[in-house]
């Protein structure tokens, strides 16, 4: 498995991970780098949805019950038990999706989100991510009155 750290500029070279990526290693890497791109060792044989679900199953993370999302989604069937894979968004292709900030509107958002690409777009096709800690810091420093309102109503 090749791993690329996404929030570093320029992107660092890929690192090869032998065998399975284990939970403690994954959590440490994600805490350090914020976002990771996982790819098959073999470009001729990319991961399929079952490979993707198997990686998630191997990490043995606590499953998050998906309730309250704003985007239209559907479940992608897999052969891996106890792993649910959803489409990222079923909006029409002409609709802009500014960035993924999963379930920011709920009190307990998921600790981790994963994206799987089955068929890359011929043009565009970006999955924009944003570092929530940077958003929080920006808003807290630049709009303290707004942050106080969020705190007052229990959103922060």
What labels describe this entry?
156 residues; alpha+beta; three-stranded antiparallel beta sheet; two-stranded antiparallel sheet; globular
Write the layout of secondary structure elements.
Layout: E1 2-5, E2 15-16, H1 23-33, E3 36-39, H2 49-59, E4 75-76, E5 85-86, H3 132-142, H4 144-152
Antiparallel strand pairs: 1-2, 1-3, 4-5
Spell out the helices and strands N to C: EEHEHEEHH
The residue ranges in which pLDDT falls below 50 over 5 or more consecutive positions are: none
Which structural class do you get from the secondary structure elements? alpha+beta
How many strands appear in the DSSP assignment? 5
How far from one another are the termini? 37 Å
Relative strand content:
5-15%
Task: Write out the strand line-up for the largest beta sheet, numbering strands in chain order.
Answer: 2-1-3
* Alpha plus pi helix count: 4
- The value of Rg in angstroms is 17 Å
| Average pLDDT metric | 79
Q: What is the percent of helical residues?
A: 25-40%
**Major beta sheet summary:** 3 strands, antiparallel
C-alpha geometry: globular
What's the short version?
The chain has 156 residues and is α+β, with helices and mostly antiparallel strands. It contains four helices and five strands. It is globular.
